[in-house]
């Protein structure tokens, strides 16, 4: 039996717009993955702690309020500190093009802007779980 | 398919290191070990073997009850209550896997958001992964891992469907059945058997009113067992009412089990069940393989289908074969005795 | 409206058309799709005729503009008398940054102000609290104190321009700061015109910017109704919103139904407090989305007016015709804008704005084309404003009232949306009302289901989004970034530090104590909030007291 892929979908910071996060959670479930959705108002510490306890393959972060430059890299930093840097981190939301290379440099593997097809995102998480 | 990188990458000897870290309270080790066992990796049996001797300390409390009754919120309150009493707490929360997609959204953790970064709390979400009933196969292995980690109390939350209450009752020390009052004139029915397996009955969401009838019914119908009368506790997870009462009931039940020797009896009953389950699985695995036993199995199946043999006799023969090949295997493993030496 | 005989004749003619001209046409050129649907996935027929409207008599359905049931508009002359207010939502960084943007927009012709607050402010946190980390000024202006409010409106005559503030959880406190700011400027409250969004019910359903549980939050809302009706008579103390419900994924029908259901719930609470409905109803305002499907949106606004008028007059017994009016602000649909080929968003916004205008909106915000990336830069905001000005002055649609009234399609859609709303009202009633339904996750689940269905339609290319799943180009979009500066943040933190140091500590403590008492009891909290504001309590401090007393809210989890 193929191993189950486990993904954490998280909303760091105060932003409460969760339409995208929930749609993606459902899509990942429909693709056969086990999705843990953290809910709203999570700090980077909350997210990393959950990711470790749930032993997920990857984390998807969603932020639409412009606070991604502070919050996303913080998650990556904390993961490394907790010896869990092998967990892949992706991000999405309202993110200016200019910020994408900066986020990638900070360790965010991929940034999904508005309009990214779900199939693309599902594919990404599948590959991420295999270590790709 | 390539093995996912997130699993134990280090060589097998460091399974011991993981278990060592686990016993020192390392959460990452705990999480990895749970995954290892849940995914039935080759080292899973060995891992269980290393962990089992260090278990038996934690109080295992199972929660069952229909969906929507507030189990997660209630557990959240209990986690906090036990934390303020200085206890270290674990939660294993189970959600159903979709039979169509094989995926699951595991949504119980979200209820326990405030306890997220508390060092004395460990929460693990599991999907049933096709296992019938309200638990995952690996649920109680996860409990074992958390027990070995040194937690004082571990809550297991089931899906609430299927025969989850039976599974929980045989594996948990204390079984809590959670119900909530119905609104309107509907006569409230409960699942058959539910009145027999609970050690504690909780009527949650009392803030909505209408609880008296249900509470009265429960008090009237639940029977005392082994010197314990299951109490009926009113709670409102939302308004944080009744939690202290529930905590005290759980502690009382634990003491009761210890003082009457029932704890040991329960452990033995559990052990029996687990051994049988493992044996069943091992046998099933072995007959599926391309071993001599597997070939015997196929031959027996053909005989039964052709009406030359009945299924019961076939099963006895299978077991005989299994025993013989096991002995043969054991004999093969023993060092050859020097010629002429006497069997002792 | 055709009589029975005429209808029979129409029917005969229609059938003949179907079996001759239509049949020939379909044989030669089949239709492009099996089924055509609106943005809300509602099936749309090939043609609408008087036969589709045969059920309700004309007068009841339409009426005249400015007369019950107001389907065609709330004023007899609509835009011939006065154009809608061009009110551009703006805010980022510090109060000073945003004040500059306000003046820019006014200079370029906007006729009303609209304030966007940053996340910490929306959640009642001061800029220097830990929850605010990384969130200062990124999606709106940070207002933590009365001083910030003063800086925001420095050089602006609040007595002569109306201000809308998009604030919900901490709305009462932020409104108090606005009132105190006006007071400091010497502008009497009776002269102030504006709106606070203050619609907490939709927060639980869609936008999720709540602070406290439903009951204490509703109490605060009614406190503002009461206070406003006595002391700030020209102020709209609520903007009952469908915009966010739609953005979260709802269909047009759900947006309409849930918004109106919420509105009716607010009226109930006001009446339960002891006010006569006519005392506060005329200051209830609404806020709708202006989405892609032109006709569906126009129908939605018309149905909204008709339903509200009927409910206010017949269900609540309001006597004053002003209480029957549904006045609304509209905003073009943010969620429809794409990151790909962003200039194309200008076209989307134009069509959406057209829908709002043809639908009779009182006030309009048009989105900037860079919304998928950031808070708008100046040029993008200006183009959005110009879009409204083109509609107002060049397109001719403002020359007559309800120009599309009588269109078979439009009237049919209006009727359908009205029906859908009543069906939802019944379901909500069965669930025990709006707040029990919120607790059961009813709205949230309906919205999530619609959102998921919509996304699947896009994934399957059932629904085309230009530039995203068709007509795609491989181009790097050129969007000039807008950044919040470190300097702004530092200045804000410094200002807070100074406020806390310089204020009269005893006065401040007493004010917060009295506020706490008021929250614990049942007097109107507004006067105490105002006193706290005047004593230099910060937004975070005031919200903190309320959080202590009212507690926090935990949402039901659904997908």
Poorly predicted runs of 5 or more residues of chain B = 1-8, 332-344
User: What is the CATH fold-level name of the domain at 58-90 and 197-451 in chain C?
Assistant: TIM Barrel
**How would you describe the shape of chain B?**
globular
The percent of residues in helical segments of chain C reads 40-55%
Q: How much strand of chain C?
A: 5-15%
Number of strands of chain C: 9
Shape category of chain C: globular
Average residue-wise pLDDT of chain C: 93
Content-based structural category of chain C? alpha/beta
Overall pLDDT of chain B, averaged? Answer: 84
Please report which band the strand proportion of chain B falls in: under 5%, 5-15%, 15-25%, 25-35%, 35-45% or over 45%. Answer: 5-15%
> Would you identify the CATH architecture of the largest domain in chain B?
3-Layer(aba) Sandwich
Major sheet summary line of chain B = 7 strands, parallel
Write up this protein.
The complex is a heterotrimer of chains A (132), B (344) and C (559). Chain A is an alpha/beta fold and 132 residues long. Chain A has a single domain (6-129), classed as Cobalamin-binding domain (Rossmann fold, 3-Layer(aba) Sandwich), CATH 3.40.50.280. Chain A contains 5 helices and 5 strands, in the order βαβαβαβαβα. Chain A has helices at residues 19-30, 44-53, 68-81, 99-105, 118-129, and strands at residues 6-10, 34-37, 58-63, 88-93, 110-112. A 5-stranded parallel β-sheet of chain A has the order 2-1-3-4-5, with helices on both faces. In chain A, α2 packs across α3. The relative contact order of chain A is 0.20. The mean pLDDT of chain A is 93. With 344 residues, chain B is an alpha/beta fold. Chain B folds into 3 domains: 10-54, no CATH class; 56-260, P-loop containing nucleotide triphosphate hydrolases (Rossmann fold), CATH 3.40.50; 269-336, no CATH class. In chain B, 46% of the residues lie in helices and 12% in strands. Chain B has a 7-stranded parallel β-sheet, sandwiched between helices. In chain B, β6, α7 and β7 form a beta-alpha-beta unit. Chain B starts with 14 loop residues before the first helix and ends in an 11-residue tail after the last helix. The model of chain B is unreliable at 1-8 and 332-344 (pLDDT under 50). Chain C has 559 residues and is α/β, with parallel strands linked by helices. Chain C has a domain at 58-90 and 197-451: TIM Barrel (Alpha-Beta Barrel). Helix content of chain C is 50%, strand content 7%. Chain C contains 21 helices and 9 strands. Chain C has helices at 4-28, 58-61, 95-107, 119-122, 146-152, 171-185, 200-207, 214-231, 243-247, 252-273, 277-280, 294-315, 345-358, 378-393, 408-430, 434-439, 442-459, 486-502, 505-520, 526-534, 539-550, and strands at 85-90, 112-116, 163-166, 194-196, 235-236, 238-241, 284-290, 328-332, 363-365. In chain C, strands 5-4-3-2-1-9-8-7-6 form a 9-stranded parallel β-sheet. In chain C, α5 packs across α6 (171-185) and α19 (505-520) packs parallel to α21 (539-550). The two termini of chain C are 46 Å apart. The relative contact order of chain C is 0.13. The chains are: A alpha/beta (132), B alpha/beta (344), C alpha/beta (559). Chains in contact: A-B, A-C, B-C. The A-C interface holds A 13-19, 22-23, 25-27, 37, 39-40, 64-67, 69-71, 94-98, 113-115, 117-119 and C 118-120, 122-123, 125, 131-135, 138-139, 207-209, 247-249, 335, 337-340, 372-375, 448, 451-452, 455, 458-459, 465, 467-469, 476-477, 479, 481, 484, 555, 557, 559. β2 (34-37) of chain A pairs parallel with β3 of chain B.
């Amino acid at each position: 039996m193929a191993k189950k892929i486990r993904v954490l979908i998280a909303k760091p910071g105060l932003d409460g717009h969760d339409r995208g996060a929930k749609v993606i959670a459902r899509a990942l479930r429909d693709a056969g993955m086990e999705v843990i959705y953290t809910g709203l108002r999570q700090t980077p510490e909350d997210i990393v702690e959950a990711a470790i306890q749930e032993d997920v393959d990857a984390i998807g972060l969603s932020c639409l309020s412009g606070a991604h430059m502070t919050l996303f890299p913080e998650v990556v930093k904390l993961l490394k500190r907790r010896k869990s840097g092998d967990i892949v981190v992706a991000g999405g939301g309202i993110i200016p093009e200019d910020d994408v290379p900066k986020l990638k440099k900070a360790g965010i593997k991929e940034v999904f802007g508005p309009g990214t097809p779900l199939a693309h995102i599902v594919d990404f998480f599948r590959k991420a779980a295999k270590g790709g | 398919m390539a093995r996912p990188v997130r699993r134990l990458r280090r060589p097998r000897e460091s399974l011991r290191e993981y278990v060592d870290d686990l016993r020192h309270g390392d959460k990452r080790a705990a999480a990895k070990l749970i995954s290892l066992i849940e995914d039935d990796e080759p080292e899973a049996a060995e891992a269980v073997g290393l962990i089992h001797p260090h278990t038996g300390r934690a109080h295992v409390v199972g929660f069952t009850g229909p969906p929507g009754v507030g189990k997660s919120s209630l557990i959240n309150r209990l986690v906090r209550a036990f934390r303020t009493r200085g206890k270290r707490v674990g939660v294993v929360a189970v959600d159903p896997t979709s039979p169509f997609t094989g995926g699951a959204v595991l949504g119980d953790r979200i209820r326990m958001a405030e306890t997220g970064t508390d060092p004395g709390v460990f929460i693990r979400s599991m999907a049933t992964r096709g296992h019938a009933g309200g638990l995952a196969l690996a649920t109680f292995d996860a409990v074992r891992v958390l027990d070995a980690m040194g937690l004082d109390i571990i809550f297991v939350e089931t899906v609430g469907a299927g025969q989850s209450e039976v599974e929980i009752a045989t594996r948990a020390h204390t079984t809590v059945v959670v119900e909530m009052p119905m609104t309107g004139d509907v006569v409230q029915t409960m699942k058959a058997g539910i009145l027999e397996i609970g050690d504690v009955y909780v009527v949650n969401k009392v803030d909505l009113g209408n609880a008296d009838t249900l509470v009265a019914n429960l008090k009237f119908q639940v029977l005392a067992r082994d010197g314990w009368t299951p109490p009926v506790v009113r709670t409102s997870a939302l308004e944080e009412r009744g939690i202290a009462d529930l905590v005290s009931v759980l502690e009382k039940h634990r003491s009761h089990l210890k003082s009457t020797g029932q704890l040991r009896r329960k452990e033995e009953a559990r052990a029996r069940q687990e051994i049988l389950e493992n044996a069943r699985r091992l046998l099933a695995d072995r007959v599926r393989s391309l071993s001599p036993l597997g070939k015997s199995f196929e031959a027996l199946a053909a005989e039964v289908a052709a009406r030359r043999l009945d299924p019961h006799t076939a099963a006895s023969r299978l077991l005989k074969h299994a025993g013989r090949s096991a002995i043969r295997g054991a004999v093969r493993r023993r060092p050859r005795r020097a010629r002429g030496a006497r069997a002792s | 409206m055709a009589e029975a005989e005429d209808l029979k004749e129409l029917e005969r003619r229609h059938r003949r058309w179907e079996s001759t001209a239509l049949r020939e046409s379909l044989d030669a050129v089949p239709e492009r799709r099996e089924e055509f649907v609106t943005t809300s996935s509602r099936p749309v027929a090939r043609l609408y005729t008087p036969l589709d409207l045969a059920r309700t008599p004309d007068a009841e359905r339409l009426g005249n503009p400015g007369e019950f049931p107001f389907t065609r508009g709330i004023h007899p002359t609509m835009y011939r008398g006065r154009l809608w207010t061009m009110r551009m939502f703006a805010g980022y960084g510090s109060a000073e940054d945003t004040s500059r943007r306000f003046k820019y927009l006014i200079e370029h012709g906007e006729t009303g102000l609209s304030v966007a607050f940053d996340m910490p402010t929306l959640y009642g946190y001061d800029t220097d609290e830990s929850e605010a980390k990384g969130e200062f000024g990124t999606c709106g202006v940070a207002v933590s104190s009365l001083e910030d409010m003063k800086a925001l409106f420095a050089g602006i005559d609040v007595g002569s321009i109306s201000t809308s503030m998009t604030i919900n959880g901490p709305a009462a406190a932020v409104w108090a700061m606005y009132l105190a700011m006006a007071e400091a400027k010497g502008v009497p409250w009776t002269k102030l015109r504006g709106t606070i969004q203050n619609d907490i019910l939709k927060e639980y359903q869609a936008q999720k910017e709540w602070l406290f549980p439903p009951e204490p939050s509703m109490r605060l809302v009614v406190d503002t109704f009461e206070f406003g009706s006595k002391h700030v008579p020209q102020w709209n103390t609520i903007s009952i919103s469908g915009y966010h419900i739609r953005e979260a994924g709802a269909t047009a029908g759900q947006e309409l139904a849930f918004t109106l259901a919420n509105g009716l719930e607010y009226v109930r609470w006001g009446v339960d407090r002891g006010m006569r409905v006519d005392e506060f109803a005329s200051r209830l305002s609404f806020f709708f989305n202006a989405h892609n499907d032109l006709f569906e949106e126009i129908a939605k606004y018309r149905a909204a007016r008709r339903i509200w008028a009927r409910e206010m007059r017949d269900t609540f017994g309001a006597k004053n015709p002003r209480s029957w009016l549904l006045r609304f602000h509209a905003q073009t649909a943010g969620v429809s804008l794409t990151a790909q080929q962003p200039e194309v968003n200008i076209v989307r916004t134009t069509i959406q704005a057209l829908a709002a205008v043809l639908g009779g909106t009182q006030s309009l915000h048009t989105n900037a084309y860079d919304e998928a990336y950031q808070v708008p830069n100046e040029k993008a905001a200006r183009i959005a404003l110009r879009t409204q000005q083109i509609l107002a002055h060049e397109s001719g649609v403002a020359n007559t009232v309800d120009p599309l009234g009588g269109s078979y399609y439009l009237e049919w859609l209006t009727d359908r949306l009205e029906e859908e709303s009543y069906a939802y009202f019944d379901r909500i009633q069965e669930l025990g009302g709006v707040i029990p339904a919120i607790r059961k996750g009813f709205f949230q689940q309906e919205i999530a289901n619609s959102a998921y269905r919509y996304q699947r339609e896009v994934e399957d290319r059932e629904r085309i989004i230009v530039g995203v799943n068709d007509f795609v180009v491989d181009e790097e979009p050129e969007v000039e970034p807008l950044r919040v500066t470190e300097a702004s943040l530092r200045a804000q933190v410094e200002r807070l530090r100074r406020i806390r140091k310089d204020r009269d500590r005893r006065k401040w403590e007493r004010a917060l104590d009295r506020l706490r008492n008021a929250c614990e009891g049942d007097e109107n909290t507004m006067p105490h909030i105002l006193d706290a504001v005047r004593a230099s309590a910060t937004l975070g401090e005031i919200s903190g007291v309320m959080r202590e007393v009212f507690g926090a809210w935990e949402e039901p989890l659904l997908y």
